[in-house]
Amino acid sequence: MSTASRRPLVLFSGGQDSTTCLAWALARYDHVETIGFDYGQRHRAELDCRLTLRQRLTGLQPAWARRLGDDHLLDVDVLGQLGASAMTDEIAIAMQADGLPNTFVPGRNLLFFTLAAALAYRRGLDVLVGGMSQTDYSGYPDCRDNTLKALQVALSLGIDRPLTLEAPLMWLDKAATWKLAHTLGGDALVDLVREQTHTCYLNHRHTLHAWGYGCGECPACTLRAQGHQAWMAQRRRD
Ligand code: ZN
């Protein structure tokens, strides 16, 4: 099956990683749809960014405007009913005794992929694209390569259709993610990511730093800022 005939659904939160993944999919596939999840997350600014980002992406390249299809926003309040985490409640971000940060929402990505697979079935889509990364992240077990590979098999069997899970950032660190955005869309895409995507866990959008908006101190901001700094240093060397 050629790449062009496959139709992806991008898990699109409005953050840096999923925006880069959406551009990646638009560069490869003729028809791309997006899905987002509202689960009462603290960083709701991310959800508010989604539609602006979609619209601005279509302005970057005429082909991307032709290729970008429908957006779907699903309400998954049920995640909040499963118990508090620092991602959904006013709890200080910290490491837990089991070595995972308390921003970990157990089952979140498993649920997201299952819902995305159900929607893909209804919409005739056959690739799920997510911004998970094993290289440079907090060690969430549901973002790991093997978890996604196992899910690909389970979901394909469960809907009895070949479904491919793609995670273009899986082995990239944050510096390489900035670089990928530049390769895909040049300075215009980097500026869009910088100014319109939201990553900060604490929802700060007051100050525009070199790497974008955020508190500058939470784990997500720190990772994003350090990655941007490393990429800028690389660019100066190249
Ligand atoms: Zn922050």
Describe the protein's architecture and organization:
The chain is of the alpha/beta class and 238 residues long. The chain has a single domain (8-198), classed as Rossmann fold (3-Layer(aba) Sandwich), CATH 3.40.50.620. The chain has eight helices and seven strands; from the N terminus they run E-H-E-H-H-E-H-H-E-H-E-H-E-E-H. It has helices spanning 16-28, 45-60, 62-67, 78-81, 108-123, 145-159, 174-196, 219-237, and strands spanning 8-11, 32-38, 68-75, 127-129, 164-166, 208-209, 212-213. Strands 3-2-1-4-5 form a five-stranded parallel β-sheet, with helices on both faces. A two-stranded antiparallel sheet has the order 6-7. Strand 1 (8-11), helix 1 (16-28) and strand 2 form a beta-alpha-beta unit. Helix 2 crosses helix 7 (174-196), helix 5 (108-123) packs parallel to helix 6 and helix 7 (174-196) packs across helix 8 (219-237). The chain is globular. Zinc ion (ZN) binds next to helix 8. Residues 200-202, 204, 214-215, 217-218, 220-221 line the site of zinc ion.
